[in-house]
Design goal:
This protein is an alpha/beta fold. It has two domains: about 240 residues, Rossmann fold (3-Layer(aba) Sandwich), CATH 3.40.50; about 45 residues, no CATH class. About 45% of the residues lie in helices and about 10% in strands. The strands form two sheets. Strands 2-3-1-4-5 form a five-stranded parallel sheet. A two-stranded antiparallel ribbon has the order 6-7. Helix 9 runs parallel beside helix 15 and helix 12 runs antiparallel to helix 14. It is globular and about 50 Å long. About 40% of the residues are buried.
């Protein structure tokens, strides 16, 4: 039975969901049917988080090797067999577990301006009705929430300290096994971005993926009533889930998000305050990954909040 030979390991809110769905279209790629198995982050653990709505992560996380292997039992002659779990980069256990089980796997890392990433996590939770506070209030409570065992997505600021996260992987894997990308490049030219990944994974680079749907968009509903009806758990959504195919629900959900959500702006005061705390980490990260991160120091967001 196969295990993956490549992994998309993060960062969270940096396009991992989009890459999962784009790569899943390629005929030479097999992606795990469960997106975000989280296996290497929680192998052998009982997964339990205490924040609002955190039980969902416990429900879909696969913590046993047997269960994880089942995700790949339908793989056949595909060139690339993979999965995408955006918390592998942030997890302090995932690098060692990946190295133990699939030491020769290729690893894809997409990095996003940490300020924009933090705000996008907030918007994701606010969209789903889980975060009821302002972004600034959430930041002030972050360490308390972490101490209380809230899920990783609530770690707005801390999850963007990438340098230590990247070092964990570089200490175990050959540099040639890892490919680092910038989220801005995925947003600007997804076809070119994917072509480079195809080359990295030894795939047919001429295959054209449909990138018209941008998965997992974050934002706040333009209409609160419609937002509660279409975006948050309720009996109507539960009924639709039972009666419609998974791919249809997914496509419909993405189109609803694109039409229903709007992207509020982050205040310059909050942006500058967060950025000042990230400057040293960004400088260290730039040396580690060999990418130009100078735009991350700018006062304006480099990409819209998704």
């Amino acid at each position: 039975m196969s295990l993956p030979n490549f992994l998309i390991i993060g960062a969270a809110k940096a396009g991992t969901t989009a890459l999962y769905h784009y790569l899943n279209q390629h005929p030479q790629v097999y992606m795990s049917p469960e997106k975000e198995t989280n296996f290497f982050a929680f192998e052998g653990q009982e997964v339990h988080f205490s924040g609002p709505g955190d039980e969902k992560m416990s429900e879909y996380t696969i913590a046993t090797l047997e269960g994880y292997k089942e995700q790949f039992e339908d793989a056949s002659n595909e060139v690339a067999i993979g999965e995408a779990s955006p918390w592998y980069l942030y997890s302090d256990r995932a690098a060692e577990n990946i190295h133990r089980h699939v030491p020769h796997a290729k690893l894809i890392v997409v990095l996003r301006n940490p300020v924009d990433r933090a705000f996008s996590s907030y918007l994701h939770l606010a969209r789903d009705g889980r975060e009821r506070l302002t972004f600034e209030e959430g930041l002030s409570l972050e360490e308390k929430r972490i101490a209380q065992g809230w899920e990783y997505i609530w770690h707005y600021r801390r999850a963007g300290l990438y340098a230590t996260q990247v070092e964990r992987f570089l200490s175990l894997f050959h540099r040639e096994q890892m490919r680092f990308y910038l989220y801005d490049d995925l947003e600007a030219d997804p076809v070119r971005f994917l072509s480079d990944i195809y080359e990295f994974l030894n795939l047919d680079t001429s295959f054209m993926v449909n990138t018209s749907l941008r998965p997992n968009t974050s934002g706040l509903p333009k209409n609160r009533l419609l937002g509660r009806l279409l975006l948050r758990p309720n009996p109507l959504k539960a009924t639709v889930k039972l009666l419609t195919p998974k791919q249809f629900r997914y496509n419909l959900g993405q189109r609803i998000n694109q039409r229903l959500l709007e992207k509020p702006s982050l205040s310059q005061e909050t942006r500058q305050k967060l950025l000042s705390g990230y400057r040293d980490d960004i400088s260290s990260l730039q040396d580690l990954v060999g990418l130009d991160l100078s735009t991350w120091f700018e006062a304006q967001p480099s990409t819209p909040a998704r």
